[in-house]
Amino acid sequence: MESKKEKTFKFVVVGGGIAGVTCVEQLSSQFASEDVALITAGPHIKAVTNYKQVSRRLEEFDVEEKPSSVLEEKYSNLTIIHSAVKSLRTHTHCVETADGRVFGYEKLCICSGARPKLLTQENPHVLGIRDTDSAQEFQKRLSTAKRIVVVGNGGIALELVYEVRRCEVIWAVKDKAIGNTFFDAGAAQFLIPSLEGDKEQAAAPCKRQRFTTEEPAPDASGSALGPDWHRGIELQGQTPKPDTGSWPVYVQLTNGETFGCDFVVSATGVVPNTEPFLHGNNFLLADDGGLQVDDHMMTSEPDVYAAGDVCSACWEHSPLWQQMGLWTQARQMGWYAGRCMAADVLSEPIDLDFCFELFSHVTKFFNYKVVLLGKFNAQGLGSNHELLVRCTKGQEYVKVVLSGGRMVGAVLIGETDLEETFENLILNQMDLTAYGEELLNPDIDIEDYFD
Ligand SMILES: Cc1cc2nc3c(=O)[nH]c(=O)nc-3n(C[C@H](O)[C@H](O)[C@H](O)COP(=O)(O)OP(=O)(O)OC[C@H]3O[C@@H](n4cnc5c(N)ncnc54)[C@H](O)[C@@H]3O)c2cc1C
Ligand SMILES: NC(=O)C1=CN([C@@H]2O[C@H](COP(=O)(O)OP(=O)(O)OC[C@H]3O[C@@H](n4cnc5c(N)ncnc54)[C@H](OP(=O)(O)O)[C@@H]3O)[C@@H](O)[C@H]2O)C=CC1
Description:
The protein is of the alpha/beta class. Helices cover 21% and strands 30% of the residues. The protein has helices at 18-30, 69-74, 132-142, 155-163, 185-196, 198-203, 275-278, 327-345, 419-428, 446-449; strands at residues 7-14, 36-40, 44-53, 59-67, 78-82, 85-89, 94-97, 102-110, 114-116, 126-127, 147-151, 168-172, 209-212, 249-252, 258-261, 263-266, 270-272, 291-293, 304-306, 311-313, 360-365, 368-374, 386-392, 396-403, 406-413. 41% of the residues are buried. The chain binds flavin-adenine dinucleotide and NADPH dihydro-nicotinamide-adenine-dinucleotide phosphate.
C-alpha cells in the first residue's frame, strides 16, 4: 500500500460527524500552511451552530448537516475526501479508501462514530435509528404503521415514545422505571404523566402507549443525528384499528406476552465503528468495543488518535465525570484531540482539558429541560451517598447527590434555574453538611445563599 500513496498529509481525520469536523477545524486553523484531510463516508458533514456557553461547564448548540464545500471554502489547506476508509496500516502510516485510493498521514485521528446495536441483524422488521437515512426509513415505515414496538430504555426510546403520533406504541422496557440511562425511578415517575397527558391526547387522539417491563427474547454510513432530530420530520402513523390478528412481525417478551406489530425499533444502544481500522494493527479495545484512548486522546498505536463515539476514555477519570455517547462530548473530544495532535507536533505539553472535570449535559425529554451534572445517578458511589429531592408535579424535579456532605451530582428537570449554582457547588466541593435539607428549600434563594 505504501508505494501507491497518492498524497501524504500532515493530519488526516476520519469521519465527518461532530467529533471529526471539530478536530479538523482545530487543526486546519492552527496549521494554516500544512495539508490537512478529512476522509468521510457520507456526502455531508455536521457543523456546530449557535454555540452557547450556558454556564462554566454547560454548553448548548445546534447541529446542522452541511455540504462539505462549506469547510473547504473556510480552510484553503483542507481537502475533503468522500469515501469510506476500508483499511489502515499504522506501521506505514497510510489509509486506503473504498474507492481504492491510498493516503499517507503523519498524525491520524479516527472519529468514525458508532452504529446501532440492533437486537437482531438482518431482520427487515427491526430498525435502528442513527443517521438521516435511517430516520427517513423510520418515518416512511411509520406512515403506514398501526402499531410499533420500541425496545430499549435510553435516549432514543425516550424521544420516540413521546414524539410518535397516531400509532400505537408498545414500549418494551426491561427495567422497573423508564429512561434508565438518564434517570432514577423518582425522575421517571415525575415524567410518566407527560406520556398520558391531555396535551398529547388532543394532538393525537389515537395515541396509546402500553408499557411492559421485560425485554423481548430475541453499516454505518452517515453521522449520528442529534438534538431535535425529530423536529421537522413527521413521526405519524396510521390510526390504530382493532387487532386483525395478523402482523408482519411478532415480539415475544420475557414476561410471557407476545405482541404483533408493523415493525420493531431497536433503540438498544450503539457499537463503535472500529472494524476498518483493526485488521493488521494492534489497537487496544475497551469492554464496550471502543478504541482505548489515553488522556491525550491517543490510541495504543503510534500517531493515531481517536475522538467521539468510536473511542473509550481510558484515563483515570475525574470523580465527577463519566463518558457517554453525547453530542457535547463528541465536540469536546474532537476539539481536545486536535489540540493534543498540535501539541505533539510542536513538542508542547498539554493538560487534560477542564471539560473532563465535570460531566454536564443539557437536553430535553418530554418537552422538559433536563440538566445532568456530575454523578447524577450516584454512578459508582455504592451506598456512600445521600439524596435530596424536591418535586413539584408537572413543574420541576430536583435531585441532589451528596457524598461525605459534598455535592457530587444533580438532576434538574424543568426550569429550575439552579444549574449554575449547583455546578459551582459541585466544582468547589464545599462541605454542605450544615445546610442539610435547607439546600432545596424553595423559599430560600440559594444563589444569594452561596454568593
Ligand atoms: C437519534 C439520535 C438522537 C440523538 N440525540 C442526542 C441529543 O439530543 N443530545 C446529544 O448530546 N447526543 C445525541 N445523540 C448522540 C450523538 O448524536 C452522538 O454522540 C454524536 O453524534 C457522536 O458524534 P461522532 O462524531 O463521534 O460520530 P458520528 O456522528 O456517528 O459521525 C461519524 C462519522 O464517521 C463517518 N464514518 C464512519 N465510518 C467511516 C469510515 N470507515 N470511513 C470514513 N468515514 C466513516 C460517518 O459517515 C460519519 O460522518 C443522538 C444520537 C442519535 C442516533
Ligand atoms: N437527548 C439526548 O441526550 C439523547 C442522547 N442519545 C444518545 O444516542 C446514543 C444512542 O441512543 P440509544 O440507542 O437510546 O442508546 P442508550 O445507550 O441511551 O440506551 C440503550 C438502552 O437499551 C437497553 N438495552 C440494551 N440492550 C437491550 C436488549 N437486548 N433488550 C432490551 N433493552 C436493551 C439499555 O439498557 P441497559 O442500560 O440496562 O443496558 C438502555 O436502556 C446514546 O449514546 C444516547 O446517549 C440519543 C437520544 C437522545
